Amino acid sequence: MITTTSLLQMKSAGQKITMLTAYDYSIASILDEAKVDVILVGDSLGMVMLGYKDTIPVTMDEMVHHTKAVVRACNHSLIIADMPFLSYKVDVRDAVHNAGRLIKEGGAIGVKVEGGAEIVDIVSAMIKANIPVMGHIGLTPQAVNQMGGYKVQGKDSKTAQKVFYDAQCLADAGIFSLVMECIPYKLAEEITHTLPNTPTIGIGAGPHCDGQVLVSHDMLGLYNRKAPKFVRKYADLTSIITGAVENFSKDVRGQKFPGIEESYE
Ligand code: KIV
User: Fold this and answer.
1) 121 CA distance to ligand 1 centroid (A)?
2) For a substitution probing ligand 1, which of 87, 137, 181 has the most ligand atoms within 8 Å of its CB?
3) Is 246 considered catalytic here?
4) What is the band of 225 on the pLDDT scale with cuts at 50, 70, 90?
5) Is the domain 4-256 a CATH 1.10.10.10 member?
6) Does residue 218 line the site of ligand 1, with CB under 6 A?
7) In this predicted structure, what is the pLDDT of residue 226?
8) Which of 22, 103, 149, 210 could form a disulfide with 28 if both were Cys (CB 3.0 to 4.6 A apart)?
């Protein structure tokens, strides 16, 4: 069974960390059986499960609901749940209370929050309440409206310094791991090497991070959006499912399903 401390042991041993998203019992069972190290109940569920345009509308109740389903499926993977937009940046007490809901009601082991130096007091309060926190810097999708779209962050030296500073502040606050999204790979490498006690997990941050995360629906070809450059599609489940559904309809319409062997006497 993977714990928050396993990730640091893996970093120290040079063993790469695998992380994928899951939002429901069936997919989480498959990932857990396949021994993925970390399962993230990401707020990307807003898009891939609920059909929202972005992650902004996702609520605490939705996160708790999906986290419970994932937790029921898992015996091996470490389960981390995302804190949704405005559930942690308004008030420190609310932040700790909401993070506590994902742990107490949802059953997650830790929470993930987006942001850098500006949320250090919030992260510290959660950690003081014994809630393990994973950071998320670089492209932070909850800030999409402020960033003016989904863009690579830290490309020039001033913004790179800001990303680096954010990573350092969160590490000093005691996060157990750090997601870095859409930053230049050399910057990700530098952060990874500078923070020996903070396992880094990249998404669009190159090969030198301590681990890698993808949205499962993207890598399985289950979500028909134009995928970003960093996605590698390992399967095309959309076409497999479409074929199966068309065959089912053909068989029913052609009176080929069900057969007698699929019926009761
Ligand atoms: O919500 C999510 O799926 C995420 C990953 C992209 C890291 O935050």
Assistant:
1) 22
2) 181
3) no
4) confident
5) no
6) no
7) 85
8) 22
Ligand 1 near 106 CB (within 6 A): no
190-211: burial string, b at 16+ Cβ within 10 Å, e else: bbbeebeebbbbbbbbbebbbb
Report whether pLDDT(190) > 90.
Answer: yes
Q: Is 203 in the pocket of ligand 1 (CB under 6 A)?
A: yes
Across 29-56, b (16+ Cβ under 10 Å) vs e yields bebbeeebbbbbbbbbbbbbbeebebbb
**Selection from 160, 214, 168, 174 nearest residue 192 by Cα:** 168
Cross-strand bridge partners of residue 202: 180, 212
Q: How far is the CA of 12 from the centre of ligand 1 (A)?
A: 24
Residue located nearest, by CA, to atom 8 of ligand 1: 42
The one-letter amino acid at 196: P
Token pair 């030198």 in the structure block, residue:
208
Indicate the SS3 state at residue 180.
strand
Q: How far apart are CA 76 and CA 69, in angstroms?
A: 15
The residue extents of the domains of the chain are: 4-256
- pLDDT tens string 103-155: 999 999 999 999 999 999 999 999 999 999 999 999 999 999 999 999 999 99
Task: Give the nearest ligand 1 atom to 55 CA.
Answer: 1
Please identify, by atom number, the ligand 1 atom nearest to the C-alpha of residue 179: 7
User: Helix 157-173 and helix 120-128: axis angle, to 10°?
Assistant: 20
* Ligand 1 center from residue 20 Cα (angstroms): 9
Confidence of residue 224 (pLDDT cuts 50, 70, 90): confident
Q: Is 211 helix (H, G, I), strand (E, B) or coil?
A: strand
pLDDT by residue (tens digit) across 163-176?
A: 999 999 999 999 99
